[in-house]
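Re: duplicated header lines in exported structure tokens

Our pipeline writes sequence and tokens for each protein into one text file. With two proteins the header for the second block appears twice in some exports. Here is an export where it did not happen, for reference. First protein block:
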Amino acid sequence: MATLQPPEEEVKSKGHKRTISRYLQQSHEHIFENNRKWVEDKKNKDENFFEKLAAGQSPEYLYIGCADSRVPANEIMGLEAGEIFVHRNIANLVPNTDLNVMSVINYAVRHLKVKHIIVCGHYQCGGVQAALTPADLGILNPWLRTIRDVYRLHETELDAIADDTAKYRRLIELNVIESARNIIKTAAVQQSYQDNQYPIVHGWVFDLKDGLLKDLEVDFEKELQSIKKIYNLAQGPDRRASTV
């Protein structure tokens, strides 16, 4: 659907508060116009679409991706509303101390019974680029610390890459892989897999230049076995009491 373009010159000039106010009102109203068109289109294709939507959700997939506006989860996967449970943040991170992402994983695994968990990064990620910047970025520092820790874990490999663009792209991939590993370390995933043989955790990267998804081929079984010595949370006297 079409989007409104801001009146660049007028917005930059002084004394055009009325123009700015009108643009803001129109850009807000434009969304509701788009929404009405979307509803009409859905009903034309399936008159029962919204009845089905209201009946509940049973998505097969949990998608954890970057908040970048150029990466619409449903669209790049060719899925409809109700088919994918989505969580997004800057640079598709999965810190074990982030109650937001941990709550999403728990709900998706324990209640929605998703079969696949996907961590999807994208090339040209601003969050990863910021983490490569040797500067104080204020409130972003603790969040970007996770990406810098990924660099530290893979320092030998990354420092051996002479080309800066290639190094940047590889860090994006490694960041996805480490986020996938953090998911595999959770009790919810380990216990569900032990009982049901799902979910499987995947790592992907979306390429903005051609629209294609790249499977990083995270070996779920191998990763699960490799972390068990230290991160084995599948057992316990009362598994129902586990919250992570």
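Second protein block, exported in the same file:
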Amino acid sequence: MLGQFSPVEPYSALSTPPPWSPAHLLQPFRFRSRTEPIDWRRLSALDVERVERDMDVDVLQNFITTVTFCAVEGERCPNCRGPADPSLIKLLRMSQLSTEYLLHCQDLLSSQLSGLEERLQAALALVQRGEEQRAELEKNLQEAKQENRRRKKLIATQQLLLQASANNYHK
């Protein structure tokens, strides 16, 4: 996908594709059939202004399947029983298709986010292990430097002793 980050490690043919790649989409997007019945009583009891004012997402979630997948063709006005306006039906159908596609995108993005979160956790664990190894190597380096200083002092002391004993021997 354009604009996406490339993976740090290349994927082999045997590994699973990254969650943001087109290969991750096993099933191509298709619109579902509209078979949900319209619950006119429940719909007429709904206060849309209150939902909008209170930003009641729970009510939206409860109605999303019904609204998105209800069969609107052949619906009649519940009051006069006359046919619904074709332009209004067309508007509702386009809204249904848009909502269904957005639900698909939401699921896809959620799946991608889960995959990326897993990769992030793995990368953070790798960084943590690297930091631990770096700290251990730094500790070993400091110990080696101290041992090196100690041995240099020991060698210098031994050289002084050897020179002193050699000078005493020649006198």
